[in-house]
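Session log. Operator J.P. requested a structure for one protein chain; no other inputs attached. Running the standard single-chain path with token output.
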Amino acid sequence: MADDVARFMYENQISMATLGGHGLGGKIALATASYHLNRTTGYFGVDTTPMNQYYFESAREVRKYV
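Structure written below.
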């Protein structure tokens, strides 16, 4: 789903965006921000299930900027 968001951004000529979402949408926004750092300026999640994301190298990279 994160790749779908990046594809949507590419097809609609959206070069960068701050992504956010609620619940599952928040997780998709986090995954997109983690895997497509060059396309995101930020991330916010509302009421997402707590989860340890540290095993994703890209999530650790995003955490440096948050």
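Operator note: The chain has a mean pLDDT of 84.
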